Amino acid sequence: MSVNWTGDEELHHFYEVLETIGNGGFAKVKLGRHRLTGEKVAIKIMDKKQLGEDLPRVKLEIEAMKNLSHQHVCRMYQVIETTAKICLVLEYCSGGELFDYIIAKECLTEMETRVFFRQIISALAYVHSRGYAHRDLKPENLLIDDNHNLKLIDFGLCGKPKGGMQCRLNTCCGSPAYAAPEVILGKSYIGSSADVWSLGVVLYALLCGYLPFDDENCMALYKLIEMMQVEPQDRLTVSELLDHPWVTKDFNIPVEWHSKQQMGNIDADCITEMSIALKRSRETTTQLVKETLRFSEDDDSTGSLELISDNDSCTCRTHGLKYARLTTPTEKNKPKTPNGSACKAPMEISLDLAFSPERRSRSLDLAGVRDSGQKKKAAKVFGSLERGLDKVIAMLTPTKRWRPQDGPRKIKGQYNVTRTSQTNPDQVLNQLFTILSEKEVDFTQNGYSLKCRCPTSLSPVGMVFKLEVCLLQKTEMVGIRRKRLKGESWFYRHLMGDILASFRE
Ligand SMILES: Nc1ncnc2c1ncn2[C@@H]1O[C@H](COP(=O)(O)OP(=O)(O)OP(=O)(O)O)[C@@H](O)[C@H]1O
């Protein structure tokens, strides 16, 4: 017997939706917990209305992610469509963005860079082997997981040339600082070569801690990076990179780029948990999963696959989704026993979007701002109104300099935490108030946590970040934890440098 849930019910039935962990130009990303297994997931939530003309970008992202399964590519577990929203349930990467990691460490050692770089080229070689060019490779789109491994995210701008990777692409897209010259010049280009250029910029940022083109002295190093040759045909290819002497130094073996996660691989832990939830033997459950996989491989349409059970029956239903990524998120160490109501093992949920051919072929702006002019204008007006309102609220709120009743959180010193030489959290909080006011950064306070917004005069695209005063475990010294929620990464880097400079030990 199947259950006809709405997307909202579906989402909340399977997942506990927790705090926001990231914001992109198109999405809000929330931490989620799979109710059955306890596994943490990232839920990328996009508002259909707000997406407007960018809806095809989401379709592209879903299509790509369902065709990719690799140890260094973020996995997509499920797609849930609600009336107003599209939610992608993704593998959770707890370590944050590689970008924040670089700026926290200022730059990485050659050896650490090599370890990360090998993972990036492994992911990229795999993505190219599946016929996709990523086209938005940058440290903000590389996340760090629990095991300190990188995962590539954000396939919304990827391209899949119809005739294969040697065919040229025309869409001018990506992030200007990382885009290859031929892309910037609006020429047709080979997607994999354009990715190699971006790879060069990423390598540069890893080693130096800042972007090329910022400083004249950097040009010498930049010229030495063989990936950043202006002429695409002079550039190294990803396959040449895999066994390049710099890449293999100290490893003595070329990068292994083949996927260690087979497409449609049936996870044993997953079968165990599903068979408990479905009240079926492992054999029956495996059989059901295999049947559904076979079905979905034959089918080319989008749709979904579900295994549904109530207490009396168990049905295997598919909406024809080709991507049978049969991995219900599993908690590796300690699976939770499902409660009585959690009898439906989630797989893919149907996504039936109508995309007009005109929309499909529309190119995205290179300018990095993907909004239409009208939208930008509206955002500006709303931005200034909102800021004005924030200021009034700030002035009228006497709690601003209150001593919060609950003490600060105790946390481990992580790369996104600046250690101070102080032991009094209230003093640090007050010092932060002063600095933020001096810099005209608006903020709202919640205990020891400040949600900050930059004036549009400083950061036209809007910069939102969190600062939290906390106590560092063991030492009891005060730390300031930072998190970028929205806005341009390199601007954020400079701003954090300014705000936190006076606190550093
Ligand atoms: N799987 C994940 N695990 C943890 N955090 C994530 C995950 N996916 C995304 N995030 C966080 O959310 C942010 C926004 O996600 P993402 O880049 O996918 O959104 P977007 O709207 O497509 O962004 P953009 O404007 O760059 O295109 C990321 O930069 C990251 O900080």
Automatic annotation (TrEMBL):
Give the matching CDD domains. MELK_C
Output one GO MF annotation: lipid binding
Give the highest taxon in the source lineage: Eukaryota
What are the binding positions for ATP in this chain? 44
Its top-level enzyme class, in one word, is transferase
Q: Which GO terms describe its cellular component?
A: cytoplasm; plasma membrane
Catalytic reaction annotation: L-threonyl-[protein] + ATP = O-phospho-L-threonyl-[protein] + ADP + H(+); L-seryl-[protein] + ATP = O-phospho-L-seryl-[protein] + ADP + H(+)
E.C. number, please? 2.7.11.1
Membrane topology note: Peripheral membrane protein
Q: Which residues form the Protein kinase domain?
A: 15-247
One Pfam family cited in the UniProt record for this chain:
UBA_MELK
Chief place where the protein resides: membrane
* Record keywords, A-Z: ATP-binding, Cell cycle, Cell membrane, Kinase, Lipid-binding, Membrane, Nucleotide-binding, Serine/threonine-protein kinase, Transferase
Q: Where in the cell is it found?
A: Cell membrane
GO BP: any one term: intracellular signal transduction
> Where is the KA1 domain positioned along the sequence?
456-505
**What's this protein's family per the entry?**
Belongs to the protein kinase superfamily. CAMK Ser/Thr protein kinase family. SNF1 subfamily.
Protein name per its UniProtKB record: non-specific serine/threonine protein kinase
